[in-house]
């Protein structure tokens, strides 16, 4: 009996062992599979362990420079320029314009900029308003202000154009990327540049699975890029690396078959060994911050008054524009009077907020200083910034000033904002932001349709 029980226990134990979850039993097998796989493809390493060997870097440099020489796009800022400081200025302007903006869009702006301010000395003499007007439509207006302030700083110090990254970083508005681009392209300093295109190329070359936005990961990308820079043609190589990311190693549809460094690409090698992995899995996708929703009451004020204060042309009416604060979103730019609301608001609430604003800054009080010719709600318009989705409630307010424009000027209170009154022709020719342009186009359409009725 005891031997029978023992036999049954052994059988039961064997059956139980066979019924155990496979995970634990298969762990050594998975490790074996990984070891086998590592013989066929590069093993994914921690980013701190990644580096380009001397031989690997040399192969990448040679392949990229040859490819770039045959495939580079002809762009105005790449044209030969004997004067090295003028070359540096052109690189600076182009790189700032290219931040967050497509190449096709930048080309026309670059031509206009260089026609108006061909050298850093010409730019240093410009006003912020002139710079903003030319920049209108490119967005991220702080870039334009930094260009102007940087030019003034360099010219005021009466020194040569800064030539090294360390010197360039002292100029207001010039960060690591722009400094590296200017120093390497114009002055041949052997330094890297790292932008979104470079991050994507290196992330795929080394199959970097770390968060590309993390500060420690960003520092590692700079170190990896520094290992690749060609010591004899740093500027050409940096442009080649960026060009590859912009035209071949693209975010969603990379052309791996035409990539000059596909042999060195770990992401491509992994994707060929494992169909569940895609080249586009690198760099890792980072969840974007949720867009903020803002609401604004915008009042297009058309004033019927004294012709002498209407800028540009003699007319009996003009549009009131106010200047935004010198710091913050759209700093120093002209717009129609507006008030930021706490949230969705009805017409009565919006008009009350606008009336308070106009009375506070301009004393436009219908009972005392002006008559309302007409006041009509025009509609809503959505304008999207990178991090903000702004809903604008637009209305048209036509006023006739009882004392005329001069009387209005003399009665301004202490809390005034910079303002001007311009006629329709001047307004149409101004360098307005795309958001202001949308509102004005909307109002003009509304007026035409109203007249047609």
Short description:
Residues 14-25 have a biased composition (Low complexity). The protein is of the alpha+beta class and 453 residues long.
Please give a handful of descriptors for the protein shown.
alpha+beta; Nucleoside Triphosphate Pyrophosphohydrolase; 2 domains; 8 strands; eight-stranded mixed β-sheet; Endonuclease III, domain 1; disordered N terminus; 453 residues
Describe this structure in words.
This protein has 453 residues and is of the alpha+beta class. It folds into two domains: 227 residues, Hypothetical protein, domain 2 (Endonuclease III, domain 1, Orthogonal Bundle); 161 residues, Nucleoside Triphosphate Pyrophosphohydrolase (Alpha-Beta Complex), CATH 3.90.79. 49% of the residues lie in helices and 13% in strands. It contains 18 helices and eight strands. Strands 1, 2, 3, 4, 5, 6, 7 and 8 form an eight-stranded mixed β-sheet that branches. α3 crosses α13, α4 packs across α5 and α4 packs antiparallel against α10. The N and C termini lie far apart (107 Å). The N terminus is likely disordered.
Topology:
Layout: H1 2-19, H2 22-40, H3 54-71, H4 84-98, H5 103-116, H6 120-124, H7 128-135, H8 142-156, H9 165-168, H10 176-187, H11 196-205, H12 215-228, H13 234-247, H14 266-273, E1 292-304, E2 310-311, E3 317-323, E4 334-335, E5 338-341, H15 347-362, E6 370-384, E7 388-401, H16 404-410, E8 419-422, H17 424-429, H18 434-452
Parallel strand pairs: 1-7, 2-8
Antiparallel strand pairs: 1-3, 1-5, 3-4, 3-8, 6-7
InterPro entries: DNA_glycosylase, HhH-GPD_domain, HhH_base_excis_C, MIG/MutY, MutY_C, NUDIX_hydrolase-like_dom_sf
Subcellular location: Mitochondrion; Nucleus
Biased composition (Basic residues): 1-11
């Amino acid at each position: 009996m005891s031997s029978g029980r023992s036999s049954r226990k052994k059988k039961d134990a064997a059956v139980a062992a066979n019924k155990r979850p496979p995970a634990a039993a298969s762990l050594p097998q998975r490790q074996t599979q990984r070891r086998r796989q590592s013989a066929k493809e590069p093993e994914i390493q921690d980013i701190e362990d990644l580096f380009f060997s001397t031989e690997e870097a040399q192969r990448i440099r040679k392949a990229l420079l040859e490819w770039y020489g045959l495939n580079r796009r002809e762009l105005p800022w790449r044209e030969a320029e004997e004067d090295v400081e003028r070359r540096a200025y052109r690189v600076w302007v182009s790189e700032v314009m290219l931040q967050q903006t497509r190449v096709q869009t930048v080309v026309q702006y670059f031509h206009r900029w260089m026609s108006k301010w061909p050298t850093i000395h010409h730019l240093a003499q410009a006003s912020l308003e002139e710079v903003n007007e030319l920049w209108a439509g490119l967005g991220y207006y702080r870039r334009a202000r930094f260009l102007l302030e940087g030019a003034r700083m360099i010219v005021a110090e009466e020194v040569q154009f800064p030539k090294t990254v360390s010197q360039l970083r002292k100029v207001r508005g010039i960060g690591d990327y722009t400094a590296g681009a200017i120093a390497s392209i114009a002055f041949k300093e052997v330094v890297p540049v790292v932008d979104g295109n470079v991050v994507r190329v290196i992330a795929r070359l080394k199959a970097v699975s770390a968060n590309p936005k993390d500060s420690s990961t960003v520092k590692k990308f700079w170190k990896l890029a520094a290992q690749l820079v060609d010591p004899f043609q740093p500027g050409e190589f940096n442009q080649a690396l960026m060009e590859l990311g912009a035209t071949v190693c693209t975010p969603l549809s990379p052309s791996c078959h035409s990539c000059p460094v596909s042999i060195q690409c770990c992401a491509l090698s992994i994707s060929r060994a494992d169909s569940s992995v895609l080249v586009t899995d690198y760099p890792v996708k980072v969840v974007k911050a949720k867009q903020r929703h803002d609401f604004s009451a915008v009042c297009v004020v058309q004033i019927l008054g004294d012709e002498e204060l209407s800028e540009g042309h003699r007319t009996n009416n003009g549009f009131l524009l106010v200047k935004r604060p010198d710091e913050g979103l759209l700093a120093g730019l002209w717009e129609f009077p507006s008030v930021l609301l706490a949230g969705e608001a009805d017409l009565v609430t919006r008009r009350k907020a606008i009336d308070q604003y106009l009375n506070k800054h301009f004393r436009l009080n219908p009972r005392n200083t002006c008559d309302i010719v007409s006041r009509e709600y025009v509609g809503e318009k959505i304008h999207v910034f990178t991090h903000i989705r702004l809903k604008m409630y637009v209305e048209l307010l036509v006023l006739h000033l009882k004392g005329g424009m001069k009387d209005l000027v003399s009665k301004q209170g202490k809390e005034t904002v910079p303002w001007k009154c311009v006629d329709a022709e001047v307004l149409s020719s101004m360098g307005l932001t795309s958001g202001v342009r949308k509102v004005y186009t909307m109002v003009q359409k509304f007026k035409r349709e109203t007249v047609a009725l």
